[in-house]
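Deliverable D5.2: sample structural annotation.
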Amino acid sequence: MKKQRVVVGLSGGVDSAVTAHVLKQQGHEVVGIFMKNWEDDDDSEFCSSRQDFLDAASVADVLGIEIEHVNFAADYKDRVFAEFLREYQAGRTPNPDVLCNAEIKFKAFLDHAMRLGAEKIATGHYARVRQNDSTGLFELLKGVDAGKDQSYFLHRLNQAQLSKALFPIGHLCKTEVRRIAEELALPNARKKDSTGICFIGERPFREFLNRYISKEPGPIVDDRGRRLGQHVGLSFYTLGQRSGLGIGGVKEKGAARGAGDHAPWFVARKDVPNNTLVVVQGHDHPWLLSARVEADQASWVAGHAPALGAYGSKTRYRQPDAATQLVLADAQGFTLDCTAQPQWAVTPGQSAVLYDGEVCLGGGIIQ
């Protein structure tokens, strides 16, 4: 690859730090940018942006690169957080990391980097990009480390965005990234990975949502309509959820006590018009399995829908690819037939993402 001016998103974590190092080793002119995306409670115990910036600045110092602090909080609130709240208020479970990549890291950040004279931008995502020799199109590939692959979160990237993107650690395993950081004596070499939604941090999720979404308690019923308890508001639950339901087993009058009495409960449905939460007992209850998935707001990496046929799909991050058939598809949405491998707790608001082997084709929002 010819030597280029590359602007790297330095988050303060080890992945982006090693990303910047790899690019320097390749001879590129590397500039770091720290993105601040959240400031509503920047001084709280859960917000780590101040420490993250200090870590990113320390890394830049060790690597000998410039770093700039850029505030995208207003863009984030308008483009990501507002949609996040709308979806939760409607009873769905959104994935803000998908929207953040499409709207902030590969739009607001990309635009800013281009104004700085960048030819490419780079992030510490575990994914890869290649240009197809025969079609000329850019392809989004899974990261080599299957346990860390983040192509699911990047599936909304288009050709223009991918043509400017570099993922220098996508061919590495996390253990190798840590080893490189240790060898370089980077100050964040042993820093633990961040978890959860980027702006929420490690805080209790329900407590956070409480500040923004109105609560309307209602009944919890089972698949036979028996009332088991009361929920605190449909927005605070997601399909497949097991903990935090506050209900016990149910036993028929006069029936002998059996093993099924203590089988765990799972959220199976949210009846929004009637403000009712429906739960079922047992991980493999039929109501938790879907043989058909419908999605809208489709985003196809190639710019058009793939041909109908057999593919792999994910309906949530970290699940193995499931055998599926793409039976309907256009620019707006698509339908998957998962009869061969019914999907567990398919959740409206999350993303259904399609794969052809290691190639991520795109996806949409589950309806």
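Annotation notes: The chain has three domains: 5-124+168-205, 214-285, 288-366. Residues 68 and 164 are 20 Å apart (CA to CA).
The annotation will be released with the project's public dataset once the embargo ends.
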